[in-house]
Prior knowledge:
heterodimer, A: 321 residues, alpha/beta, Rossmann fold, 2 domains, eight-stranded mixed sheet, 10 helices, 12 strands, 33% helix, B: 330 residues, 14 helices, 38% helix
Amino acid sequence: xxxxxxxxxxxxxxxxxxxxxxxxxxxxxxxxxxxxxxxxxxxxxxxxxxxxxxxxxxxxxxxxxxxxxxxxxxxxxxxxxxxxxxxxxxxxxxxxxxxxxxxxxxxxxxxxxxxxxxxxxxxxxxxxxxxxxxxxxxxxxxxxxxxxxxxxxxxxxxxxxxxxxxxxxxxxxxxxxxxxxxxxxxxxxxxxxxxxxxxxxxxxxxxxxxxxxxxxxxxxxxxxxxxxxxxxxxxxxxxxxxxxxxxxxxxxxxxxxxxxxxxxxxxxxxxxxxxxxxxxxxxxxxxxxxxxxxxxxxxxxxxxxxxxxxxxxxxxxxxxx
Amino acid sequence: xxxxxxxxxxxxxxxxxxxxxxxxxxxxxxxxxxxxxxxxxxxxxxxxxxxxxxxxxxxxxxxxxxxxxxxxxxxxxxxxxxxxxxxxxxxxxxxxxxxxxxxxxxxxxxxxxxxxxxxxxxxxxxxxxxxxxxxxxxxxxxxxxxxxxxxxxxxxxxxxxxxxxxxxxxxxxxxxxxxxxxxxxxxxxxxxxxxxxxxxxxxxxxxxxxxxxxxxxxxxxxxxxxxxxxxxxxxxxxxxxxxxxxxxxxxxxxxxxxxxxxxxxxxxxxxxxxxxxxxxxxxxxxxxxxxxxxxxxxxxxxxxxxxxxxxxxxxxxxxxxxxxxxxxxx
Lengths: 321, 330
């Protein structure tokens, strides 16, 4: 099966800030690709760039976003509008605040549906009922206003709205971050069930490696605007290649283990205005070699993933040789 | 046995507001009791609406309790009210959002000089020396690299160190830290948690650590108090509560933490049932509890010993507990 979404050499800047740097990845049909990174890693910018929802001064400097054979980067806004929501839908970081506060839930569904295809009153009502049932919300809430719903309910409505036109690709940007842990768990379970039913593909962007590992098939790890590693989720959990992934994993202890230590990563996150050569993680990396400070590691594909790390490359070479 | 630094005894707080001519009541804190021993860290764990931030406001004197008693250093809060300046010197606070907690136009030096001048009357050389000492305690070194910085020049983790340093400025006995790491990146949370641990040990400060994160509570706290809708549902030694929860709500919290290591942990609670307001005499958690029995509808369970230094408020626990006690007696 070919890639549904093929991002190649994407670079995005905000003035002097290089937020996304030469990022390439593919999203396969039916796959959930997790994109994990901390603040300033470029993960949200990547999400916006893929849907071309960047706000100025955010600019795509180079690269392509090929969706079903068509490059979205040069596409005009009016053509993008046809694709967005119906083919490629987004659930925003504060999806719960993305709802219009002065119209009912039903009206918001209606607007989204009618913007893309004509549909009768009764059919819309039926569709709204069905979508709300999918995310476990009683049909009566269709006639409520967003403020009458709890945060978790609003986020589920936002997910249902993104799904209403049955898009092929969904982009979730931190969909659970602002929610209580129990509600987060519920939404993650809900998403898994929805994927079974709709077989959509998704980019799941989050800082929370634990959640990403639970929901994603493959995981891309971002640091300093770059993808430093992509691996199958289970494999990444057992055997991370990049030292950053390794260090980040240690920050998420198994909640059921006998002893839990306070583990972090020493040092501070990189400055995205810094474009000097070398690995952005080198100053915080316990495996850093001399060359890591001067030579930028190149992303090397390995299987259906890859890694950008001098140390991993040398280790790999030893292992293969 | 050291007498506690802080003691809450049956503290109650109800917020009242008028909405459309009707008075609405939110019973935010319900007969909450716990104590903080010298140099101990007590974690208050709960989700939004659990009352944990209201408790912080009651302890710091921002809000007043309707009933019950708050005793600080052996003296009831009512007596401290005549010496609020002294109380505020001794009870400091660290907030969730370090970006919002600092004046963007004040240098680190000015920010840290305020408590030192206001509470301790330091100036000149002594002031400068003390600022440097506090910066060293929170590991913002070399001092000269940080002292003249403005907030925008610092990272989130560094800002939270400045906020903590400011709290230390008045030499407090107690710091209430309200979600001090939840806004920070995962990789730099550890350094703030370690700092709290160090301050308790070396600066001899006691902490009330407020969090929604059971894991960080377990890492840091001597005792954990689990709150649900303003009620203490479980209370005990940190590792005991987080490892062997006895209340169904604490169990649910633990199971809800993402755990890719586990093979599909299914929560035992139907999560679609939420937010049923149960303010009518029964157990506050019964609307979401998979084990709810008829007694849970009509009576409020009391906090009972379920182990050494470990208590839970649940009829189910009460029943198994009773039978265990019977068994051991036989």
